[in-house]
Amino acid sequence: MTQLYDCRDAFNEKLLELAAKDSRIVTVVNDSVGSSKLNQFRKEFSTRLINVGIAEQNMVGVGAGLANGGLIPFVCGASPFLTGRALEQIKADVAYSNTNVKLCGMSSGMAYGELGPTHHSIEDMAWLRAIANLTIIVPADPNETAQAVSAAASINGPMFLRISRLGVPQVHPADYKFEIGKAALLREGRDVTLIANGVLVSKALEAAELLAARGIQARVLNMATVKPLDKEAILKAAAETGGIVTVEEHTIFGGLGSAVAEVVVTNQPVPMRILGVPGVFAPTGSAEWLLEYFGLTAQGIFDAALELTGARV
Question: Which of 145, 131, 47, 49 is nearest to 92 (CA)?
């Protein structure tokens, strides 16, 4: 059985390692120590964790103030509340002011499942992608998560890390090197390209196996950085494979699929299918059931790619 990992564990292990070496690293939370898995950080660096309570706007403002004081704040909270409630502060205090704040949207997508639409974070990439100066990273596995945390700590400027709580397998080899703005080619293919990020990268790889059994060779790209986007990899995929399927744990409006489509339609138009939540509030149910409900599975990706390539393969 494939081992699954909670990327929040990798996030916190790396943050602890970095904080031990750099006293500027602090955390700011909205009564979310447990859900952000920062208990050990609080134990080891009690004076470097600020809990503002359930006050997300204040949390982001405090983070900006700490950054202006020369610290490196990792502002951690459930993604729907961090990005939804504090959007104005993210825009004005962090992005417009270009402060060195690392926004960490925990338990993103539909990971909160049974807590329903108020806790689903399926719009966060859309409204954050529209804000200037803000780098957006959606890691796919623990290896990539740890490297994204290191990159965030070492590079000056506002960033948003979208960290899921759903179990995922390792999709990258041990020697993988994450680079902001660069897609990772996980599988070669000439017939169609599957582009995913976060928890759905492993599903795209599974779909590629299903397609291979039908004689369709699918290229798989992990587009972990949604902003800045790897336009070169997208245009190369469009030119060489002739069709693209994107898949994301997010609404189909304004997220990864929209970002890819913007590049494709203005430079290298090819047929596309955008898989995600189709412009509705996701119902209440387990995260796994919700992915099935919206066809965000290996079979769903396979079906979309098969339909897209049917006339050409």
Answer: 131
